[in-house]
Amino acid sequence: MLEPCPCIKRSFFKKFSNYFNITLLIKSFAGTLFLSLFILFDFVGWHNRFLESFLALIGFYLLLSTSRGFWIGFFFGIFWFWWISLSFRYYDLPYLIPLIILLVALVYGVLFAVAYWLALKLPYSPLFRALFLLVVSYIHPFGFNWFVPELALSYTFFNFDKLSFGFLLLSLASFLILPRYFKLVSFLFLLYPLFKPQPPSIPLAPLKIKLITTHLSQKEKWNPAFQDRIIGQNLNYIDQAIQEGYDLVVLPESAFPLFLNLDPFLLEKLLERSVKISIVTGGLSYKDGRVFNSTFVFEKGKYLILNKVVLVPFGEANPLPKPLAKLVNHIFFNDAQDYTSAKEPQIYSIKGVKFTNAICYEATHPLLYKTDSTYLIALSNNAWFLPSYEPNLQNLLIRYYAIIFNKLVYHATNIAQTKIIP
Predict the structure, then answer these.
(1) Which residues in the chain show pLDDT less than 50?
(2) 308 is catalytic
(3) The domain containing residue 117 runs over which residues?
(4) CB atoms within 10 A of CB 272
(5) Is 7 a catalytic residue?
(6) Segment 128-166, tens digit of pLDDT
(7) How many CB atoms lie within 10 A of CB 142?
(8) 360 catalytic, yes or no?
């Protein structure tokens, strides 16, 4: 029996050991940690521009100076997205939580490993790594688009639009590449992200708007035994807003956890109240055998339904090929039916003011910010992922897109922080 050449064995083990080099592990861990702490700072309600600017510069420098990317992507997958696994508690699959965390980490690990491997084949590899970090937010594994590295600049002295982020990365890459006596030149590239003029802030909509925060656990929300209590609470929120003289009251995603368009008695109650106040609320709708995650807008005794455009991967629509998606839905999701999406973003008008409709996940998608309305009303239910900092990451992403596209977002949530963004 032929034995492999010893030189082949040594070559294989040398390459394999490169991925477990202690220096590589430390640099990857430190770089990703520094670029993830801003989420934790937001979770505790504390930001410091000096500290976060320093952490961002050091973090991106470590990423650009690291030759192999698997552990970078692996740690990013854990630090940013470990909370994805928490939703499996509600499918009676809690034992899958560690596996889902590992799977997400591996997906991002492989993505970074391939990109960094290609960079090693090219001259001036830090520039290629910088280019990858600049465009990686356009790469969406299974349709999931929440990995935006420049989000780490949210509360720093640096602008975080793509051009500003590109100059910041170019500065750090140039510092790594240029000879010693020319390294100071690389800092000139930081002038643009530091001093680019900011667009003027958006004024509040000319309406008195009340955003409602509900406090329902995921098990309570979809338990029929709690349905009457939930409906009563929601009607009380609306009645209170009427008494306080608001023009518009906004309730969160699926605030009415039922097929609202099939409940004429409840619709009548909401239509009666809409004569006194405009109402925007989340609910499910059903039409022609299809299920929609919808926003219901009630105004002056009439209502309209606007359906979600960008569905949550695996949560609302399975992104896998149909035969495989059907099998996964059967094994893990009790043959649950996928939601149906609307074809394009939808705009509605309240007392002459135009709003873009956004429901939870899609409020973090650039598509919803490309309409001609200045304002968005976003409805969310964050109970799936609590306790975690998922709501903070969502609000940071909404703030990112709101600033990039110069919009103002009214965000009403279940459990998480309701706020006007930015």
Answers:
(1) 1-2, 8-9, 12-13
(2) yes
(3) 13-195
(4) 11
(5) no
(6) 999 999 999 999 998 999 999 999 999 999 999 999 999
(7) 11
(8) yes
